[in-house]
Specification:
Number of helices: 8
Radius of gyration: 16 Å
Shape: globular
Oligomer: single chain
Number of domains: 2
CATH superfamily of the largest domain: Alpha/Beta hydrolase fold, catalytic domain
CATH class of the largest domain: Alpha Beta
Distance between the termini: 35 Å
Largest sheet: 7 strands, mixed
Length: 226
């Protein structure tokens, strides 16, 4: 592992790792950390190349981020943890649960997707256009290169085979907004594919944890403590 993650830590008890979305950082979970820390030992991480965690030299992919997460857990002697991932963080959590099932307690997937087609076209088309544009200038501009890397995660990743969902061993909560940027039928497909899963839609868009923390925290804690 060529990076050290920046993270926020709070509470005690069973470890609960919070994984933010594309282009964000651990601050996304400011409405969750204190609430969850009353019951769990919370770690909110900045992903590679996000927030205060350095980019490093390894590939900038969802699968690399999942291996980074393994490195973080090993470095902090976390044998097993509950994972809550939002958006790209949910995709990281999904890949991690498939690769390292013995390291995952319960799994919460918030606004995750299996492939780029899971997003609504009205959202995905501007991302694809932005990615192409940024890629054209990536060699000449550092900001364009970074933008191309971030958008590339949403254009080229995570490409999870729906059949692989049957291999997930963790009890799972699939949670999304009623007006999410991820198509509701795609979210339903994820829940249907995971053997021991619950599906919850909360009123709101993709950013339900940030915009409706009370409802989101209630649903997550009911699942984790149920």
């Amino acid at each position: 592992m060529d990076i050290h993650h920046h993270f926020i830590e709070a509470g005690q008890g069973e470890p609960l790792l919070l994984l933010h979305g594309n282009g964000e950082n651990s601050d996304y979970f400011k409405g969750q950390i204190d609430a969850f820390a009353r019951h769990f030992h919370v770690y909110a991480l900045d992903t590679r190349g996000h927030g205060q965690t350095p980019r490093g030299s390894a590939p900038f992919t969802i699968r690399q981020f999942a291996e980074d997460l393994l490195g973080f857990m090993d470095a902090h002697e976390i044998e097993r943890a509950h994972l809550l991932g939002f958006s790209d963080g949910g995709n990281i959590a999904l890949i991690f649960a498939l690769r390292h099932p013995e390291r995952v307690g319960r799994l919460i997937l918030n606004g995750a997707n299996l492939n780029p087609a899971g997003a609504k076209r009205s959202v995905q088309i501007p991302i694809e256009l932005g990615y192409r544009f940024a890629s054209l200038f990536a060699r000449k501009s550092e900001s364009a290169r970074r933008n191309a890397e971030l958008l590339g995660l949403m254009v080229n990743d995570p490409n999870i085979d729906p059949a692989d969902l049957a291999k997930i061993r963790s009890k799972t909560l699939v949670i999304a907004g009623t007006r999410d940027m991820i198509q509701s039928e795609h979210t339903r497909q994820i829940a249907a594919g995971i053997p021991d899963s619950q599906l919850v839609f909360l009123e709101g868009d993709h950013f339900i944890a940030g915009k409706h923390p009370e409802a989101f925290n209630r649903a997550v804690l009911a699942f984790l403590r149920g």
